[in-house]
Specification:
The chain has 363 residues and is an alpha/beta fold. Helix content is 37%, strand content 20%. The protein has a seven-stranded mixed sheet with strand order 3-2-1-6-7-14-15, sandwiched between helices. A four-stranded parallel sheet has the order 9-10-8-13, with helices on both faces. It binds 6-O-phosphono-beta-D-fructofuranose.
């Protein structure tokens, strides 16, 4: 009897971002053309493995055209809720449903999984893989760029481009109205987007969670800019920055989830009071996650997808593809999830910001 081709599974997990489809396309291209394998795309992260019938689709070379390379979002769908080890049940309790996920993978004949996710998703997938004896290769994605051991995660460049473009658009209107413009950007626990976009977009102030700030220092800097003869200022604040009372500003959603968001308005009010300047606030939100991926996100995603498949072919597991020194390498998954990669306050980019005279809130 003819042997069935090897079957690998792929899923996207956690918040979406631009470039996920480019990675899916690369995995399918390499696995099907390079090795003759079958690729099953699981829908909505591990949710597709919890539902019965199982939610999946066979991904063949029809998706390996250039079309999905350009598309934002993920054709597979994703979720950042529903940890199978602590799954929220309708009665409010949490149930361990990991065995159902593993049974789903077995039913599909998947013994090797490519998970495209961030550190939270990797921690869950790793546990599932260990429990179920599944081989796992991770591809890092998150606009926050806080996955360890990789210089870049898919989606980061696109998010920074969107945030920098927002500053390009805010600057002329700020100058026309003599205003202080506050731009709140995403970054759950890390200030990478704020720092990079703020430098690229000509910000006067950049506030990130890694560097505690003082409102008085920020107000004094805006005053200094005014005294130097400039009639506007641009302030970028990462959503996870704490308010004056030391609390993160969060939103409770009707579905039960809690997300960051709101520090921009608190800051805008406080700066208006302290400086007397007219202040307006823009919260960029999910605009940073959607839209067409930049060339670099497409390129990195493509390199990640091909390398992930080659790693499987080489018999590797429990590893993650990573971008280091201008190329793609692989690192142990444990290393990648050990600690989130936050902004190093002594890094070259922080020094660049200070060298440009940008206020980081601490001086
Ligand atoms: O982790 C990615 C991210 O976009 C964060 O920057 C943000 O805090 C969070 O996800 C938003 O999550 P949600 O899509 O649930 O609102």
């Amino acid at each position: 009897m003819a042997q069935l081709p090897k079957t690998i599974g792929i899923l996207t997990s956690g918040g979406d971002c631009a470039g996920l489809n480019a990675a899916i396309r690369a995995v399918v291209s390499r696995a099907v053309q390079g090795y003759g394998w079958r690729v099953l795309g699981i829908r909505h992260g591990t949710m597709g493995l919890l539902r019965r019938p199982l939610e999946f689709e066979t991904l063949d070379l029809r998706i390996a055209t250039g079309n999905i390379l350009r598309l934002g979002g993920t054709i597979l769908g994703t979720t950042n809720r529903g940890d199978p080890f602590a799954f929220p049940m309708p009665d409010g309790s949490l149930r361990d449903r990991s065995a159902e996920v593993i049974a789903g993978l077995r039913e599909l004949g998947i013994d090797t999984l490519i998970g495209i996710g961030g550190d939270g998703s990797f921690a869950i997938l790793r546990r599932l893989a260990q429990q179920g004896g599944i081989k796992l290769v991770g591809i890092p994605k998150t606009i926050d760029n806080d996955v360890g051991a990789t210089e870049n995660s898919i989606g980061y460049h696109t998010a920074v481009m969107v945030a920098a473009e927002a500053l390009d658009r805010l600057q002329p209107t700020a100058a026309s109205h003599d205003r202080v413009m506050v731009l709140e950007v995403m970054g759950r626990d890390a200030g990478h987007i704020a720092l990079a976009a703020g430098i690229a977009g000509g910000a006067d102030v950049i506030l990130i969670p890694e560097i505690p700030y003082g409102l008085e220092q920020v107000a004094a800097h805006i005053e200094k800019v005014r005294l130097q003869g400039r009639n506007f200022a641009l302030v970028v604040v990462a959503e996870a920055v704490k308010d004056r009372g030391g609390q993160p500003v969060q939103q409770q959603h009707s579905g039960g989830g809690v997300t960051y968001g709101g520090i921009g308005h608190r800051l805008g009010d406080a700066l208006a009071r302290l400086t007397g300047a007219e202040t307006r606030v823009t919260v960029l939100g999910h605009v940073q996650r959607g839209g067409q991926p930049t060339w670099s996100d497409r390129m990195i995603a493509s390199a990640f997808g091909v390398h992930a498949v080659d790693l499987i072919a080489a018999g590797k597991s429990d590893c993650m593809v990573a971008w280091q020194n201008r190329g793609v390498v692989d690192v142990p998954l444990g290393e990648a999830v050990a600690a989130p990669q936050q902004v190093d306050p002594d890094s070259a980019l922080v020094r660049t910001a200070r060298g440009l005279g940008i206020c980081l809130g601490d001086d």
